[in-house]
UniProtKB/TrEMBL annotation:
<keyword id="KW-0804">Transcription</keyword>
<keyword id="KW-0805">Transcription regulation</keyword>
<dbReference type="GO" id="GO:0003677">
    <property type="term" value="F:DNA binding"/>
</dbReference>
<protein>
    <recommendedName>
        <fullName>AP2/ERF domain-containing protein</fullName>
    </recommendedName>
</protein>
<dbReference type="Pfam" id="PF00847">
    <property type="entry name" value="AP2"/>
</dbReference>
<dbReference type="InterPro" id="IPR001471">
    <property type="entry name" value="AP2/ERF_dom"/>
</dbReference>
<dbReference type="GO" id="GO:0005634">
    <property type="term" value="C:nucleus"/>
</dbReference>
<dbReference type="InterPro" id="IPR036955">
    <property type="entry name" value="AP2/ERF_dom_sf"/>
</dbReference>
<dbReference type="InterPro" id="IPR016177">
    <property type="entry name" value="DNA-bd_dom_sf"/>
</dbReference>
<dbReference type="GO" id="GO:0003700">
    <property type="term" value="F:DNA-binding transcription factor activity"/>
</dbReference>
<keyword id="KW-0936">Ethylene signaling pathway</keyword>
<dbReference type="GO" id="GO:0006952">
    <property type="term" value="P:defense response"/>
</dbReference>
<comment type="similarity">
    <text>Belongs to the AP2/ERF transcription factor family. ERF subfamily.</text>
</comment>
<dbReference type="GO" id="GO:0009873">
    <property type="term" value="P:ethylene-activated signaling pathway"/>
</dbReference>
<keyword id="KW-0611">Plant defense</keyword>
<feature type="compositionally biased region" description="Basic and acidic residues">
    <location>
        <begin position="134"/>
        <end position="143"/>
    </location>
</feature>
<feature type="domain" description="AP2/ERF">
    <location>
        <begin position="26"/>
        <end position="83"/>
    </location>
</feature>
Length: 149
């Protein structure tokens, strides 16, 4: 019992000893590359190999890809980032690394596209009255710009 307490204490001490400026991972199974992309991968059960799940623009997309893969690998008992979004009704026939990678990257890409679209829409400036363009009358002859006829 005492050794268990000591090992747990060491783990929490390790977490507290993060380097300054080093952020804690926002979600399980993902990490950020130096250039800002978020990547996801998962270890195959009973193997040392990992399944590469892709790189994404947002941490949420990478985490959703990870959740999909972990759910197919470990079932409903898996520890997920977003348990409310996993399709528990999905029928799992093929649990090969390739099929899991395909399903996870589909989910991640879909979420990444949605996140990117939402970011673009929110980044657009509010239109002002000076931005309103008048629709030209296409039946009218154009008028000279400098006042000469």
């Amino acid at each position: 019992m005492e050794t268990e307490f000591r090992s747990n204490t060491r783990k929490t001490e390790k977490r507290k000893q993060q380097k300054p400026g080093q952020e804690e991972k926002p979600y399980r199974g993902i990490r950020m590359r130096k250039w800002g992309k978020w990547v996801a991968e998962v270890r195959e059960p009973k193997k040392r190999s990992r399944i590469w799940l892709g790189s994404y623009s947002s941490p949420v997309a990478a985490a959703r890809a990870y959740d999909t893969a972990v759910f197919y690998l470990r079932g409903p008992a898996a520890r997920l980032n977003f348990p409310e979004y996993v399709d528990g009704e999905a029928e799992v026939r093929d649990v090969s690394a390739a099929s899991i990678r395909k399903r996870a990257t589909e989910v991640g890409a879909r979420v990444d596209a949605i996140e990117t679209a939402l970011h673009r829409v929110s980044a657009l400036p509010e239109p002002s009255s000076s931005w309103v363009l008048k629709k030209p009358d296409l039946n009218k002859y154009p008028e000279p710009e400098n006042g000469e006829e």
